[in-house]
Amino acid sequence: MMTQPMNICVLISGNGSNLQAIIDACAAGSVNGQITRVISNVPGAYGLARAEQAGIAFSVINHKDYASREDYDAALQAEIEEADAQCVALAGFMRILTPAFVEHFAGRLLNIHPSLLPKYKGLNTHQRAIDNKDSEHGVSVHFVTPELDGGPVIIQSRVPVFEEDTAEDLSERVREQELRIYPLVIRWFCDGRLGMQENKATLDNEFIPTSGYASD
Fold first, then answer.
1. Of 28, 57, 112, 213, which sits most exposed with the smallest number of CB within 10 A?
2. DSSP string covering 170-184, please?
3. Each residue of 184-198: pLDDT tens digit?
4. Which candidate in 63, 104, 113, 137 is catalytic?
């Protein structure tokens, strides 16, 4: 028996390609959820147009309007709670969140990061993989904890790195995987299968390995 769709809030800063993948998955019924708010810290971010086209409520909370990270995160937290969100998905949200904010949403705050964590936390991950002559690169979905890009990994997807690759080539290859695995993780969460215990990710009450869920 289908349960009530879970309310999802998606935070963005830019194009919103992962947001679109989540919108499409909800519309197709593959995710038992509904996006009740899209929030951007950047006015004019294209992801806001995606939300508008899908009839989803959206807000801009510009970080430049706040004197401190704490003040900004307090406003962001209030907006998320006003949207009655049970799942908060960071989808290219380019802000470092305060520990108080992260702890408030612990266990329901997800992020997608373009590297095989714990490698290449932070920015410029594709170029760093190329510069280090890695043979593979990829993307991770993880729970957010106060450590930057350090929360427990839920799933990873790997792609090859070719000798002639540019950062743009690698970014596009990784993005294809992002659009596949983020909706899958959100589906697990909305179905009540995914959780966090003892700072580890769990699926069906079993701990997920530190390298993420193993799939074919």
1. 28
2. HHHHHHHHHHHHHHH
3. 999 999 999 999 999
4. 113
